[in-house]
Amino acid sequence: MTDIRLNRRALLSLGAGVAAAPLLGACGGVSTSGADGGKGSVTLMSNQFSPVEEKQRFEKILQQRITAEKVAFNQVETGVFASTLQTQVDAGKVQVSMVGALHGDLAQHAERLIDLDDVLAGLGDRGFAKELTDLAKLGGTTTKYIPWMQAGYVLAVNKKALQWLPSGADVQKLTYDQLLAWTTAGAKANGGKPIFGIPAGVKGLYHRFFQGFLLPSFTGGQITTFRSAEAVTAWEYMKQLWAQTARGSTNYDNLQEPLQRGEVLIGFDHVARLVGAPADKPDDWIMVPAPSGPKGLGYMLVLAGIGIPKGAPETDKAKDVLKALTTPEVQLDVLRQNAFFPVTNAPIPTDLPGAVALAAAAIKAQREAPNAILSLPPVGLGARDGEVGQIFKNCFKEICLDGKPVRQVLDAQATELNKILDELRIPCWQPDPAGENCRAA
């Protein structure tokens, strides 16, 4: 696979373009009817928008914005997405017209997706960054998906917590040491009740914190540095941070509800799972970039794209829907409703809902930080992404909950990680250097 790198300069402009592209004449509204839209409809299968509310809001966007075709939005879990796409294409019995997923989820299916150079060529006014369209080639020479949307993770902060911010600390430019000092002081002043939370529930995305933020910030990598001395330091730090974290975090699938209830005052999560907290009283909240560590500010870019499987029904209609999904109107609707940011030059409006505006500012500041270290979610793992994610969760459980020695845990989990990676034989993804076979050293 070609070693494609996203540079910060290209990302600075994402979501902050100049002029809106012309509205496609076909744009207006789409009929959706779940997994099966009937004969002649376009079925979009995606592992995105899994929360019911997100799915419903996206279906409403389709209904309001695209009228030319009848579209059925079929949301499935990541494992089902991978197996369904593989099984249908390999059997030559494809029932879905389009597939939408994260870059890493699409990467292992490059040979199962049709070339979309013709579609991309007609979208010159969308202003896609070259690095994104290069990524969309999935290591080859032709476009395999069209960028769809992007998102990220930040810290949501109730302004009540600012009174305990360490002297001299800039909440917009925190270090991990300052975050620890802040949460420690906050818990002490709060009668011993922690003010910090993470989404460590069964469906929580806390493993992304370790993969894309903590470890890159302390080690400069994610996989190749998995059991390095710097990784030991990172996990020793995590033990200290966990001591100042709300124990209810192990029940939180997302942070916006405990933040709304006041159970925690500072929380890390995916922006789409944070924006509900400040929705009613945005003036009571701020959202800020993740902290920086010894190596820099590690952050994870969540990039999603849409492709068309080989042998898919209604291909021409699917291409029309794909074009409509990249119009400024749809891109900005997705931003307003589900807090996923444009991948086009659609200008960010000044009248965003308060919570979304807070998230937009934090994402921008995080991306533009001079010490930013860009990280991607795992690429090419397919149905085994959950297994790799579980390894990071195992590290958390054994180190932070069970109190096992960090070095012992990392060595044991690295062995399990390498078993998976040695079977897959895939290159590393950012921030790790590309190699023939990505593995923990």
TrEMBL record:
InterPro entries: Bact_solute-bd_prot1, SBP, TAT_signal. The keyword Signal applies. Keywords: Cell membrane, Lipoprotein, Membrane, Palmitate, Signal. Residues 1-25 form the signal peptide. It comes from the Bacteria. Pfam families: SBP_bac_1 (PF01547). This is ABC transporter substrate-binding protein. It comes from Winogradskya consettensis.
